[in-house]
């Protein structure tokens, strides 16, 4: 997720809900690293839903700046793509396009190395 060509990482990873129900999430409560300043009379920031690698969600404080979302409440959307046994090549064949890894790095997908 580090560098994307011609696009904003937040826009590429944000899940737009529309009128449907919220998607399954990793944590029941939104995560906020650095709360935004409170402005009297302004509504609170609505949570956003992001699709990020598990290592980014686990260590959000380290990665939130990459998504310009450190001061936003964030729900991390569960994805089959990051579940054990997911077959990316099969998924791409069945869906007729190559999604690529969007700059995801293996160390960010399954484990973080900060412990």
Describe the structure using short key phrases:
single chain; 115 residues; mainly alpha; 5% strand; elongated; disordered C terminus
Structural features, described:
This protein has 115 residues and is mainly alpha-helical. The protein has one domain (9-33, 45-103). The chain is 23% helix and 5% strand. The chain contains 5 helices and 2 strands. It has helices at residues 9-13, 54-58, 60-63, 88-95, 106-110, and strands spanning 48-50, 74-76. Strands 1-2 form a two-stranded parallel ribbon.
Quick synopsis:
This protein has 115 residues and is mostly helical.
Helix-strand topology string: HEHHEHH
Q: pLDDT under 50 segments (min length 5)? A: 1-6, 99-115
Task: Specify the helix fraction band.
Answer: 10-25%
Structural class: mainly alpha
Strand order in space, largest sheet: 1-2
**Proportion of beta-strand residues:** 5-15%
* Count of domain modules: 1
Question: What would the average pLDDT be, to the nearest integer?
Answer: 76
Task: Assign an overall shape.
Answer: elongated
**Largest β-sheet summary:** 2 strands, parallel
Distance between the termini: 21 Å
Number of extended strands: 2
Radius of gyration: 15 Å
Helix run count? 5
